[in-house]
Model the fold of this input.
Amino acid sequence: MKTIRILFALLLCGGAVSGAAVAADTAQGFTRLDAAGARELVAPATHRVPTIIALWSAECVHCKKNLALFAAMSRAAAGPRLVTIAVEPDDPQLGEILDRFGVPGARFAYGDEAPERLAFAIDPDWRGELPRTLFFDGRGGLKAVSGIVDEARTRALLGLGRP
Done:
């Protein structure tokens, strides 16, 4: 059953991530991410539809604002795919937070490797500020943004027209 859940999470991400990508699938539905898996997860070629990868933390107030927006957008018809990465080890409160905001999609949390190594694997230009969001347009394009974004900017970064 654990293998099926991992494969399903990876299929939701739009690409194949190797067995090195995950250390374990947790009870909260999070997949622990390692550096090799992080690099594969953020490869633009693996996202054939508009995709948002939201990097967040339980203590980040602004992250939750973005998560609420992204969740609403991804649930809408023809909305983008949403993937979340908690930039901290898996903890039961992480799943509760995402559930409270109705966040769909694959859920990842930092695994056992050094946080700096994982952050660099996700985005070499990122210095750890949150919220951090990776926007994939589904055609090989990637834009990374730090801070709060609104719906209009999110749609523009994803290459989507008006709703």
User: Anything to note?
Assistant: Residues 9 and 137 are 20 Å apart (CA to CA). The chain has one domain: 2-158. The first strand starts at residue 22 and ends at 25.
